[in-house]
Amino acid sequence: MRILLVEDDALLGDGIRAGMMLANYAVDWAQDGKMALAALSDHTYDACILDLGLPDRDGLTVLKEIRTRGNHTPVLVLTARDTSEDKIAGLDHGADDYLTKPFDLGELQARIRALVRRAGGTAQPLLQYKGVHLDPSSKRVTLHGQDVPLSGREYSLLLTLMTHPTRIHSKSQLEDSLYAWGDEAGSNTVEVFIHHLRKKFGSDFIKTVRGLGYQLASNDT
Ligand code: CA
User: Fold this and answer.
1) What interhelical angle do 59-68 and 33-42 show, nearest 10?
2) Short-list 3, 172, 152, 156, CA closest to 74
3) Where are the domains of the chain?
């Protein structure tokens, strides 16, 4: 799971990034609107946390522009403005949720989990597939009721697959979801993590779709 953080305040941005990384998200951090627009056209994000008061333009214009381009990334607006007019304007410009500063990091994490979940088409907080249960709020993963320990990136990859079980994920999309700017990705890392997940959950848990990528469930099942 990869998210874009758009925030110009260094201290706050640093805190949010650290908090989201602890929750196993790969986090790209853009400090102005121009960087944010470039990032959103170059990468696919599972969610975007967007501050409204940016140095070069209003966050709402960033939001309006990406929605005009047909970009449906779930966006949570962060705002110091707590008037209802501002909230209405944000939602009308295509925001999916908003949080007023100052806010609790735990609440931000919970709201991002909910946005990602809804974007995956499920309202259920607990993900399950073939005896595997994944609880995004506690990061607990079990197979037939037994806890399965996972590394941070194994967990992140499993979360992406289970959030969109019928989607075919190409190797580069999965790579994109695991690594933020500046992270070094080895050449075969996605294959290695898939291999680890199959060892833990069974060889047929993740299907290889020849020439296309990986998938949990076929569309017809
Ligand atoms: Ca700001």
Assistant:
1) 30
2) 3
3) 2-119, 127-216
Q: 10 Å Cβ neighbour count for 113?
A: 18
Q: What is the number of alpha carbons within 13 Å of residue 14 lying toward its C-beta? A: 3
> How far away, in angstroms, is 51 Cα from ligand 1 center?
6
220 pLDDT more than 70 = no
Residues 133-146 have pLDDT tens digits of 999 888 999 999 99
* 58 alpha carbon – ligand 1 mean position (Å): 9
71 CA to centre of ligand 1 in angstroms: 23
Tens digit of each residue's pLDDT (9 = 90 or more) over 29-85: 999 999 999 999 999 999 999 999 999 999 999 999 999 999 999 999 998 877 778
The token pair at 60 is 């709402």
Ion ligand 1: residues, Cβ under 5 Å:
8, 51, 53
What is the distance in A from the centroid of ligand 1 to the CA of 119?
26
Dist. CA 154–CA 151, nearest whole Å: 5
CATH topology of domain 127-216: Arc Repressor Mutant, subunit A (1.10.10)
**Which CATH fold topology does 2-119 show?**
Rossmann fold (3.40.50)
Overall pTM surpassing 0.90 (yes/no): no
Q: How far apart are CA 71 and CA 63, in angstroms?
A: 9
Taking the C-alpha atoms of residue 149 and residue 147, their distance in angstroms, rounded to an integer, is: 6
> Sign of dihedral through CA atoms 176, 98, 37, 183?
negative
